[in-house]
Amino acid sequence: MRRLRLFFATCLLAACQNQVVDESGTSTATDNAEWSNIGFDAKEQRHSPLDKINENNVGELGIAWFKDLPDARGQEATPVVVDGKLYITTAWSKVFAYDAKTGKELWSYDPEVSGEKAVDTCCDVVNRGIAISRGRIFFGTIDGRLIAIDANTGARLWETQTTDNSKPYTITGAPRVVKNMVLIGNGGAEFGVRGYVTAYKISDGTKKWRFYTVPNPQGKADGAASDEVFAKAANKTWSDGEWKISGGGGTVWDSIVYDEELDQLYFGVGNGNPWNHGLRSGGQGDNLFLSSIVAVNPDTGTYLWHYQETPAESWDYTATQHIIIAEVDWPVGTEGDAKGDDQASILTEKRKVLFHAPKNGFFFVLDRTNGQLMSAEPYVENINWAEGYDMKTGRPIENPDARFYKTGKPFIAIPGALGAHNWHPMSYNPATGLVYIPAQQIPQGYEVPTSDIDKKRGRLGFNVGIGWAVGQLPDDKDIYKAAIAATTGKLVAFDPKAGKVAWSVDYPAAWNGGTMTTAGNLVFQGTSIGLFKAYAADSGKELLSMDMQSGIVAAPSTYMIDGEQYVAFLTSKGGAFPLVAGVAGGASRKIPNIPRLVVMKLGGKTTLPALPEKSEIVWNPPEPTSTPQQVAEGKALYGRFCLVCHGDSAVGNGFTPDLRVSGTLASGEAWASIITGGALKQHGMVSFSSQLKADQVEALRHYVIDRSNWTKANVAEDTAPIAR
Ligand code: CA
Asked: According to the model, what pLDDT value does residue 593 have?
């Protein structure tokens, strides 16, 4: 508390400009009425003590002000509010600052990322937010830079390249400020990179330490904080395999959390590269630290402990999801049982824990003093890769069929690669004891690569070591319907102590927004079908549902100014699922994508502008002139190189061009000018000439012509192009 008081005193004297209050200080909340970290405070519970808006009046929320944003791509940032100013990052790593009360734009900063970098993003050109400390704002860019800017003026203070830009690294996560350092990881594990976390000095961006999450491929020391633990133990968990070429993955693309109480730093590590453990590491070894939570000393980056959630990861089951720090009264038994007393009461002990709901479908409670597993229970239904966890060993009890590279048979996994919970932040309300998880079911097929196309590794496209045929839906109306029905979303209120779902709300589509909870007994969440919702945090009763015109994926935040409480959030769809989903997007497919910052308050009277008229789309595919072999080859190539940006089975997504209505389909020459000529490289569609020969480019065109004709004849209404 002493530090907080000092900060206020300095603020009053000098209007909070560039104050260096306490070099050992952290970026924790300076005032509970604001939202000073993307996760609220260092614990990242996303729980605000504000209760001016509460279960009795939340229905009176209306829009106070809104701002349209420049790019109709994914908006994933949580607004951060400090000293009456609201900061967001947007698609393409841009930063905007507003007066948090009036909405007046104060400044903006565009790091001018090259459009060509979009091809290196697995999951859209998104950014999840800023860190702020002592008058400085820190954020990462899609092209791997970490930038510091002045919070008052938006002027750049320093920037540093944190990645090798000859490799497909990206940054989408928010940095975290810890002591006198700013920490950042990176992404790129689908393409083939080696993951790490780096600490930089906040003063000038010089590197302090780095921790690699996977071994050095040459077996050398890196001169990094991670050297010792790899030499002692972690190297032994890897065997010969493609990781030595690809880098092994293990990117830390989202969660980094500082435990002030124990002075430990935790981060969540991503999936392996390639996904297929049989190819990655010869089917041998747990492959540390993939799919693990790792704890390190924040000052030096040296290893303290880890817990690996998915040993020998093979399904893109990242552990990068949001980590929450908490203290709970953990049940340890029942008093009175032995005496036959029917007034038995539950005995508890205080435990320092962290909560985690990674992609693999199980909710983990870890003792954060030592990484010991306390609980691992499913937070969704239908999980089929494992039936649970052995609490003695801390390891999953796996379904042997899930290891498709061992059986040689395709496996349709639940969860799939997009996870039972992806990056969308969850929140924890200490009063209800519940964690609110934006959960989902998105099944995915996995099989070993058999075609030369899927076996080939290269700079472009996903290099994940699976066959893509099983990942694409066959042309069948009934299968389309089944895929839509099997792909759903859910708000799950999970009770970590009971290891059970307390209540849940079903949504018709996956990829719903992050959550926020408050002392007003409220949970807030936007949905992929364009509604902004509020529920009673204890019971799940719906208290608000407002049409926001656009799908929502980001999480809200809340703050108080001059006695009024505000709720702020970004709208837009975007991110991995809407890009790749195809028809499985279901009810969210036709919902508009409007990039916008919306701020609400009780009695807000601002109305959103009318939606633009939908433009007429010409649906006129060329006559098919191809052989079935060309179409089959085109389909395999599409899966390997095009699917993750243009959507399953080329049905379009409303973000990237719908290839079925491309004006270039009728001309092999015009088509090739884009695919291998690079005519649209500034939009992220770089030349694929290093990967595709002329006959393959033609096969792709014939596949899309085939798709276009089939769709028109069969299910044009369900999968018609989405008007933008
Ligand atoms: Ca991944």
From this structure: 92
Residues facing residue 132 across a β-bridge: 137
Taking residues 667-671, what's their average pLDDT? 94
Given a contact cutoff of 8 angstroms between Cβ atoms, the answer to whether 549 and 419 are in contact is no
Which of the 8 DSSP states describes residue 674?
H
Q: How many angstroms separate the Cα of 137 from the Cα of each of 151, 298, 407, 609, 714? A: 6, 20, 50, 32, 52
Nearest by Cα to 68 from 90, 93, 38, 101: 90
Residue 590, Cβ density class (10 Å: 0-12 exposed, 13-18 middle, ≥19 buried):
middle
Read off φ and ψ for residue 292, nearest 5 degrees: -125, 155
Of 316, 648, 658, 706, the active-site residue reads: 316
How many CB atoms are located within 10 Å of the residue 611 CB? 10
Lookup: tokens for 76? 């994933």
What mean pLDDT comes out for the span 309-326?
A: 98
> Does the pLDDT at position 101 exceed 90?
yes
Sequence-distant (6+) residues with CB within 8 A of 359 are 316, 317, 318, 319, 321, 415, 417, 418, 419, 420, 421, 422
Residue 116 DSSP label: G
Q: Give me the amino acid identity at 721.
A: P
Give the list of residues 6+ apart from residue 343 with CB closer than 8 angstroms, or none.
336
Instruction: Please tell me the distance between residue 72's alpha carbon and the centre of ligand 1 in angstroms.
Output: 23
**Confidence (pLDDT) at 717:** 64
**Distance from Cα 282 to the centre of ligand 1, integer Å:** 20
The answer to whether residue 140 scores a pLDDT higher than 50 is yes
Provide the residue type at 260 as one letter.
E
Q: Known catalytic residue: 538?
A: no
**Residues with a beta carbon under 5 angstroms from ion ligand 1:** 271, 316
* pLDDT tens digits along 688-720: 998 899 999 999 999 999 988 988 887 666 666
pLDDT reported for residue 293: 98
Q: What is the pLDDT of residue 28?
A: 41
CA 400 to chain centre: 28
